[in-house]
Amino acid sequence: MQDIGGRGDAALLLLARLALAALMLGGAAQKALSPGDAMALLAERGLPQALVWPALAYDAAAGVALVLGWRMRPLALSLAVYCAFTSWFHFKPEDPWQMTIFVKNWAIAGGCCALAVAGAGPWRLGRRG
User: Fold this and answer.
1) How far is CA 17 from CA 53, 65, 93, 95, 125, in A?
2) Sequence-ordered list of residues with C-beta below 8 angstroms from that of 62, at least 6 positions apart, any chain
3) For 1, which DSSP code?
4) Which residues cross the membrane (predicted)?
5) 3-class SS at 50?
6) Distances in Å between the alpha carbon of 126 and those of 60, 67, 68?
7) 87 contacts 105 by C-beta, under 8 angstroms
8) pLDDT band at residue 5 under the 50/70/90 scheme
9) Which of 23, 107, 117, 119 is most buried per CB count within 10 Å?
10) pTM listed for this prediction
11) Average of pLDDT values for 4-18?
């Protein structure tokens, strides 16, 4: 069944945005409530632990922007790069759980690329008409 440009497509784009927003907002909450976990991942890669705070801010801002559908294409592309970069923290072939997160981050990056192409859909902030 094809629904190009119809309400079904609009609903699916909103659902995609909300699912990604839940992930980003959850990541922000996790960093806020237990920053030590993220700091340990940063330290393992030789990066300053204080980077947890801008990462938390980015996660929170991206989550809100996804909910609102604000500047979707640049946001989705930045999220794709962010997810691809942060997958590096989880590349630990000896740990199946970390490798699952590594692959998940690449899958999310792919979804973000698709959202960048599709756009936010009609149910977004700043909709005209």
Assistant:
1) 23, 9, 31, 30, 13
2) 21, 24, 75, 78, 79, 82
3) -
4) 50-68, 75-91, 103-123
5) helix
6) 20, 13, 9
7) yes
8) low
9) 23
10) 0.90
11) 87
Q: Do 30 and 36 contact (CB within 8 A), yes or no?
A: no
Integer Cα distance of 10 and 5 in angstroms: 7
Enumerate the H helices of the chain as residue ranges.
7-33, 35-44, 52-68, 72-87, 96-118
Look up residue 88 and give its amino acid: W
Residues 64 and 24 sit within 8 Å (Cβ to Cβ)? no
What is the residue type of 116?
A
Q: Residue 125: pLDDT band by 50, 70, 90 thresholds?
A: confident
- Angle, to 10 degrees, between the axis of helix 7-33 and the axis of helix 52-68? 160
Return all residues near 117 (Cβ < 8 A) that are at least 6 apart: none
Predicted confidence (pLDDT) per residue in 33-50, tens digit: 999 999 999 999 999 999
| 57-109 residue pLDDT tens | 999 999 999 999 999 999 999 999 999 999 999 999 999 999 999 999 999 99
